[in-house]
Amino acid sequence: MCSITIGLMVAGTLFSAYSQNQQGKYQEDLAKNNAIVQQRQADDAIKRGEVDEMNHRLKVAQMKSSQRAKFGASGADVNSGSSLDVLADTAMMGELDALTIRGNASREAYGYRVGASNTIAQGKLDKSRGTNNAISTLLTGGGKVSSQWYSSR
């Protein structure tokens, strides 16, 4: 009867240790998958930023063309004076906005990349915790089995 109890204790201990170790591995794998998603989100943020920046530059170019046409239609010289100042200001503000769009996309991507890095680190920690819990379970279970063994003798 005692050997059955000891056998069950050993089996329970081994199963518990195995489960804890597997849970740690699962958490690490889950973290890796989440990090891949975050990396893809970062890439997407950069691509969206590039498209938004290009579209903004096109709008500014259209605005400048419209301004030139209006200045020309009114008889103003578009290559000097206030007409040139307005066109230069439009170009400067348009460029500032385009760079802001690029910077915002870069910051968004950076946030996703930092998140991916943190997710990977957490996964490694979870795996290590699972391994440590498994070892602790084996040691504790081994002590209980040993105690049971000696008390049955």
Can you tell me about this structure?
With 153 residues, this protein is mainly alpha-helical. The chain has one domain. Helix content is 94%, strand content 0%. It has two helices and no strands. Helix 1 (2-73) runs antiparallel to helix 2. The two termini are 12 Å apart.
**Mean pLDDT reading:** 94
Please report which band the strand proportion falls in: under 5%, 5-15%, 15-25%, 25-35%, 35-45% or over 45%: under 5%
| Overall outline | rod-shaped
| Individual helix count | 2
Poorly predicted tracts of residues: none
The value of Rg in angstroms is 33 Å
Q: What is the terminal-to-terminal distance?
A: 12 Å
Q: How would you sum up the major sheet?
A: none
Tags for this entry?
single chain, 153 residues, mainly alpha, rod-shaped
Task: Detail the topology: elements first, then pairings.
Blueprint: H1 2-73, H2 81-152
Helix pairs in contact: 1-2
TL;DR?
The protein has 2 helices and no strands.
